[in-house]
TrEMBL record:
Coiled coil: none annotated. Its main location: membrane. It comes from Pyrenophora seminiperda CCB06. SUPFAM superfamilies: P-loop containing nucleoside triphosphate hydrolases. The lineage of its organism: Eukaryota, Fungi, Dikarya, Ascomycota, Pezizomycotina. Keywords: ATP synthesis, ATP-binding, CF(1), Ion transport, Membrane, Nucleotide-binding, Translocase, Transport. GO terms for molecular function: ATP binding; proton-transporting ATP synthase activity, rotational mechanism. GO terms for cellular component: mitochondrion; proton-transporting ATP synthase complex. This is ATP synthase subunit beta mitochondrial.
Amino acid sequence: MNEPPGARARVALTSLTVAEYFRDAEGQNVLLLLVL
């Protein structure tokens, strides 16, 4: 956990964007677990 908080937040937001893509565009069920 040596990454700065901004980098960790960026990873979380990117993960959320990918999950939303699979939910909306692909019509798949998505379970997103974030442990920061």
